[in-house]
Amino acid sequence: MQDLPEPATEPDGSVVVRVLSYNIRSMRDDVAALARVIRACRPDIVCVQEAPRFFRWRQAAAGLAGSCGLVYVSGGATASGPMILSSLRAHVERTEDVLLPRTPGLHQRGFTTAVLRFGRARLGVLSCHLSIDDQERYEQGRLLLDRLSALDVPYAVAAGDLNDRPDGRTFRLLANALHDGWATKPWGREHTTRLGDPLQRIDAVFVTEGVQVLGCGVPMGLPGVEERDLRAATDHLPVLAALRVPAA
C-alpha cells in the first residue's frame, strides 16, 4: 500500500493535514475498536456523522475525543448528528451548527462547520449526513455548497455520509462544484459500506479549488488499522484524506 503523507508544515507555510470522515452510528458498537481506528489514522480533523445526540451526548463526544487524543470542536446534537473533532495542531477560529429544512416524516438533518487555522493556513470544514430521500438530499447538496461559500475562507473541505453514490445527482452536484478526493487521488479502498455489504461509495471528502489532494480512500492496510476493528467499530468504513492547504 502506498504511504499516505504525514501531517506536516512546509517551508512556504502550507500545511499537510489529514481529514477523516466517519459515520460512527451513535457509538452503539465497539467504542474501543472505533477509537483504535481513529488513532491509527492520525487525523488532524475528524468529520463525524451520527454522533451521539441524546442522553449525556456531550460526555460521550468528549470521551471519544479524549480516547483518540483529539478535542471536540463543534456539532453533535446541536447539528442533529454531524460533529467535528480536531488535533491540537488546529486553532479554532469559529464554529456554527445549522439545522436544515425538514421534510415531514423524515429525520432532522444538519451541518456543523468550523474555520480552523494551522499556522498560516486557514481551512473551512463542513461535516454532513445527507437525507435518504432523493429530492431532500439534492436540496441539502445545494445548501451545502451555499454554506461552504458562506464560510468566506479561500480553502475548505466538506466530508460526510452522502447517502448517494457517484452516479447519483447529489453526488454529481457536489463533484461538479468541488474536487472529489477519491476521484482526484485514489488511495486505499474505494467502497465505504460495511465489509460484506454490497459495494458502494456513499461517504466522501470534497475540497475547494487550491487544496491539493495527496491521497484519499478507506485506510485498509494503513498500519494499525485492523480489519477486525473496522468490522466492530460501526456499520460504515472511514474515509481518510491527506490534503495540502496553502498558506492564507
Structure, described:
This protein is α+β, with helices and mostly antiparallel strands and 248 residues long. The protein has a single domain (12-245), classed as Deoxyribonuclease I, Chain A, CATH 3.60.10.10. It is 24% helix and 31% strand. It is built from six helices and 13 strands. It has helices at 31-41, 57-67, 134-150, 169-177, 181-184, 227-233, and strands spanning 8-9, 15-23, 45-49, 71-75, 83-86, 91-99, 110-118, 121-129, 156-161, 179-180, 203-207, 212-217, 239-245. Helix 1 (31-41) crosses helix 6 and helix 3 (134-150) runs parallel beside helix 4 (169-177). The longest helix is centred in the middle third of the chain and has 17 residues, at 134-150.
Radius of gyration: 16 Å
Say how many strands there are.
13
> What is the chain-wise order of helices and strands?
EEHEHEEEEEHEHEHEEHE
**Biggest sheet statistics:** 7 strands, mixed
How far is it from the N-terminal to the C-terminal residue, by CA? 33 Å
The CATH homology group name: Endonuclease/exonuclease/phosphatase
Q: State the shape.
A: globular
Organism: Streptomyces cinerochromogenes
Protein name: Endonuclease/exonuclease/phosphatase family protein
Domain Endonuclease/exonuclease/phosphatase: 20-236
Pfam families: Exo_endo_phos (PF03372)
